[in-house]
Input
Amino acid sequence: GQNIDQPTEMTATEGAIVQINCTYQTSGFNGLFWYQQHAGEAPTFLSYNVLDGLEEKGRFSSFLSRSKGYSYLLLKELQMKDSASYLCAVMDSNYQLIWGAGTKLIIKP
Amino acid sequence: GAVVSQHPSWVICKSGTSVKIECRSLDFQATTMFWYRQFPKQSLMLMATSNEGSKATYEQGVEKDKFLINHASLTLSTLTVTSAHPEDSSFYICSAREPSGDVKQYFGPGTRLTVT
Output
């Protein structure tokens, strides 16, 4: 079967760095997405990785290792507004998105 | 960037009635739109894939006669929840993909449905 695993909840301090991991097992791979979702709102796109390596975009970076079925989202200089759920999703061989359950990130002052 | 809108943003209806939710791509043509449902503290669950001009493809366990999807134009897809029950109360989100080959999905703001 297809499976996406990510931690349920993480807590970090304002100004610090946090890494949210995601491991996956899917039928085929056409890229991995990270989305941010604030409570009661729709997801917003953060990153897309299809090749191995690190993609940096401002305070957010995303890493992918296809051989290990592993990705992480790195958030630097955390701000209170970063408190949200972070969803990992993999596009399978049929170009369907398989979603993880999301990681709720709590930022403390 | 690509913008997707949904209407209404929230709706309350009585059991047994039907509710229609609209999803529009505002600045691009979307040949494919997706309908998701999300229960509190859970991840997105794909309900169906809507293709312009053809029948929607429903995921296993989703009743096509209960959740009617119509994708009549390149900018509009509608989801009608028929004979709604309280257990249909949820957050319904649509997304769309540009026909250019971009694999990214752009999400609408979501519609919160409460069935009393």
The radius of gyration of chain B is 13 Å.
